Amino acid sequence: MADVPNPFAAPTQFSNFVLIVEGKKLHVNKEYLSMHSPVFAGMFSGEFAVNEEEVEIKDIVYEEFVEFLNVIHPSLSPITASNVKYVLRYAAQFQMEGVMDKAEEFLKSARNVNTARKLLFAYMYHLDSLKQHCLDSFRSVEDIFALQNHLEYPILTEPIKLLLFDKLMALGERSGRH
């Protein structure tokens, strides 16, 4: 993350608000953030609007949030295997459906993110299309058993394991008929 560009470190002609994360200032555009997030829209306008020129956001990691801002700004940073975890977390926190969709599409095509991790993200963030994509990727009983070798397998939730069991049974029935 050290090489992440930070166009938010200093004011620009387009910035009109300051977010403070871990004591560091990020110069942003209120309108742009509001277009992407009902949370930011509520923060900047409406009956609960912040009347200050800057606001501190807690429980956010500065470097992660800078990369997240780069992802939502056009052509700055792509979603990658190394940032998708916190891109999803912040997109969910700030209700950015467009970013959630972008991350889901990335995960569907990502070959460097294992299926166990994808299923975990699908469950955590209610990414139904990703969940179905993962389940459809299992072509044999062996594919599902191989999933147990992934480091993330022990942290998969019971609902995910039940889905895997259902898929295992369906594959077993299908192979038993042939």
From TrEMBL:
<dbReference type="InterPro" id="IPR011333">
    <property type="entry name" value="SKP1/BTB/POZ_sf"/>
</dbReference>
<feature type="domain" description="BTB">
    <location>
        <begin position="15"/>
        <end position="81"/>
    </location>
</feature>
<dbReference type="Pfam" id="PF00651">
    <property type="entry name" value="BTB"/>
</dbReference>
<dbReference type="InterPro" id="IPR000210">
    <property type="entry name" value="BTB/POZ_dom"/>
</dbReference>
<protein>
    <recommendedName>
        <fullName>BTB domain-containing protein</fullName>
    </recommendedName>
</protein>
